[in-house]
Amino acid sequence: MSLKALDAVLEATHSGPITWKKTDPDRYETLGEPRVSIQFHYPQVGGETTTGADIEVVSLGGVVLSFFSGSEGMEKVRQILRESRARLMRLSKTSRRHNKRPRVDAGWPLLFAFSRSWPRATQAERST
Known about the structure:
By secondary structure, the protein is an alpha+beta fold. The chain has one domain. The chain has helices at residues 2-15, 72-97, 102-105, 108-113, 120-127, and strands at 19-24, 27-31, 36-41, 55-60, 63-68.
């Protein structure tokens, strides 16, 4: 049951209805419906030693699923995140193709992002 749900999420991520956003360093959430989140957990092995992201907790539709390192579920969750990144890369390449002057237009948003209009007092002084 849980692997079939992950297959459906993977297919929806691949085909486009689901878009992912990284909300924390170890947490991913979908934008819009269906609400799905993936959280990585780092088990502590004694003292301050951790083993890495060995547990993934997936919340979908009010159901919480845990997958451990080496399991088929863990591999499916990682496929979902890889597909999400690959889809973002495809979309960003597509958007660059539509700009006929990418090198010319690239600096304009940055240039105007920091510009400020003159304060009113300064404008009044300049006009006299």
